[in-house]
Amino acid sequence: MSLENGFFGPAEVLIDYLTKLNDPGKYPFTRGIFPEMYRNKKPTVRQFAGHGCARHTNERFKKIISLGGTGLSTAFDLPTLYGDDSDAPLSRHEVGWDGVAIDTIEDMDELFSGIPINKLTVSMTINAPAAVIMAMYIAVAKKRGIPLSSLGGTIQNDIFKEHIAQNEVLYLLKHGVRLAVDLMAMPSNFHKVSISGYHIREAGSSAVQEVAYTLADGIAYVEELLKRDLKVEEFAPRFSFFFDSHNDFFEEIAKFRAARRLWAEIMHKRFHMPIPENYNLKDTKLQSLWCRMHAQTAGCTLTRNQPLTNLMRINNQALAALLGGVQSIHTNSYDEVLCVPTEKGVRMAIRTQQILLEETNITNWVDPLAGSYQVEFLTEKIYEEAKKEISVIESFGGMVQAIEELYPQKKIHENAIADRETFEQWKNDPNKKYFFEQDDTANEDLAEISEEVEKRHGYESEQKDRLSKFKKQRYQTGALKALDKVRRAAEKKESLMPVLQEAVEFSATLGEICGALRDVWGSAKESAGVSSSFSHKKALKFTKGYRFPRPVRVLLAKGGHDGHTVGFYILRDIFQAMGAEVIHLGFRTTPEAVAKAAVEEGVDFIGLSALIGYVPGFFEDLKNSLKSYGGSDIEIIGGGIMLPAHEKYIKENLGIKNIYVPGSSDFGEIIQNMKKRAE
Amino acid sequence: MKKIGILERQALAYIIGCFQKYPTMEMHIDSSDTWVIGVTGVTGAGKSTLIGRLIPSFRKKGMRVVALLIDPSSKKRGWAILGDRRNLRSDELDCDKGLFIRSLATRGEGFALTDSFSKIIAYSKLFSDVVIVETAGAGQTDVEIREHVDTLVQVIEPLGDSLNLEKAGQSEEANIFVVNDREDFRSGKKFFASAKLVLGEQCLDDGWRKKVYLANAETGSGITEVVEGLFIHKKFIEKKQTAKPAT
Question: What are the UniProt keywords, alphabetically (chain B) (predicted)?
Answer without folding.
Answer: Chaperone, GTP-binding, Hydrolase, Nucleotide-binding
